[in-house]
Design goal:
With 271 residues, this protein is mainly α. The chain has eleven helices and no strands. Belongs to the binding-protein-dependent transport system permease family.
Length: 271
C-alpha cells in the first residue's frame, strides 16, 4: 500500500476544499432559480415547496393574459433597443479608449464605468429628472436610454479586453500594405472583435430585459416591462403565477446565453 506523506495529504485536502467551495458556490447560484422553476408547476393555488403535483396551467395563464404578453414584448423591445445603442456607442468608445492616442483616453475609460458603479435607483431617478428638464416623460425610449447608460460599461469593457489582447502589428501590417483605416477596421479589426461584440450584446440584452432598479423610475404607463408587472403580481398575489413569470424571465436569459454558445461559444468570450 502506497504511503501518503504530509505534503501530498495537504495537497489533496486543498484540492478537495476548492472543489467543495466551487460546488457550494454553484449550488447557491443555481438552486434559487431551480426552486422557482419547480414551484411554477405546482397544482396548488399558493406558493409552496415542494410542489404537490405537476401542471402547466400557470404558464397557460401567463401566455393568455394580454397584460403579461404585452409586458414580455415590451421587455424584449427594450432589450433590443439597449443592445443596439450599446453596440453603436460602446464599440467606438472602446476603440477610442484602447487605441486612442490622446491625453484623456484613460479618463474616458474610467468615466464610462461611473454609471455602472452608481446604484440603479440613483441612476433611474437622475435620468427621470433629466428627462423632465428636457421635456421627455417616462416612456419606452427613456427607459431604453437609461438602461443603455447603466450597462454601456459592459459593452465597452468587454470590447476593450478583446482589443488589448489583439496584436497591433496586424493593423500596422494592413496599413503598410496600403489599406485605409476603414478597410483595416472592416477586414481585420472587426472580425477579430466580433466574438466580444456578440458577447457584450447578449449581456446588455439580458440586463435590458431583466432590470428593475432603473426601469421602475423610467418606464411609461403604457410600456410596462415584465419586471414591473412581476413586481405588481408579487404585491397582489401569492400564487405560482409569480414563479411562472419568473421562469419566463429565466428562460429568456438562458436563450440569450444559448445564442452565444451556438454562435461563438462561451469558451471564446474572453479570448
Amino acid at each position: 500500500m502506497k504511503r501518503i506523506d504530509g505534503r501530498e495529504l495537504l495537497d489533496r485536502l486543498g484540492i478537495g476544499l476548492v472543489i467543495g467551495l466551487a460546488v457550494l458556490a454553484l449550488a447557491l447560484l443555481l438552486l434559487p432559480a431551480v426552486i422557482v422553476v419547480v414551484m411554477s408547476f405546482d397544482t396548488r393555488g399558493y406558493i409552496s415547496f415542494p410542489p404537490a403535483g405537476f401542471t402547466l396551467d400557470w404558464y397557460y395563464k401567463v401566455f393568455n393574459q394580454p397584460v403579461l404578453v404585452n409586458a414580455m414584448w415590451t421587455s424584449i423591445k427594450v432589450g433590443l433597443y439597449v443592445t443596439a445603442l450599446c453596440v453603436a456607442l460602446g464599440v467606438p468608445t472602446a476603440l477610442a479608449c484602447a487605441r486612442g492616442d490622446f491625453r484623456g483616453a484613460t479618463a474616458l475609460s474610467v468615466f464610462v464605468l461611473v454609471p455602472h458603479m452608481v446604484p440603479g435607483i440613483v441612476l433611474g431617478v437622475a435620468v427621470l429628472f433629466s428627462g423632465a428638464l428636457l421635456g421627455i416623460g417616462p416612456s419606452i425610449w427613456l427607459q431604453s436610454i437609461s438602461l443603455s447608460v447603466y450597462v454601456m460599461a459592459v459593452m465597452v469593457r468587454t470590447v476593450m479586453a478583446r482589443l488589448q489582447r489583439l496584436d497591433p502589428l496586424l493593423e500596422q501590417a494592413s496599413a503598410n500594405l496600403g489599406a485605409t483605416r476603414w478597410q483595416t477596421f472592416r477586414t481585420i479589426t472587426l472580425p477579430l472583435l466580433l466574438p466580444a461584440i456578440l458577447a457584450g450584446a447578449v449581456f446588455t440584452f439580458i440586463e435590458g430585459v431583466d432590470n428593475l432598479s432603473v426601469t421602475i423610475f423610467t418606464h411609461g404607463y403604457r410600456d410596462r416591462p415584465l419586471p414591473i408587472e412581476l413586481l405588481a403580481i408579487v404585491q397582489n398575489t401569492n400564487s405560482p403565477l409569480v414563479a411562472a413569470v419568473s421562469s419566463v424571465q429565466i428562460m429568456l436569459a438562458m436563450l440569450a446565453l444559448l445564442a452565444i454558445s451556438l454562435t461563438i461559444g462561451l469558451d471564446r468570450v474572453n479570448e
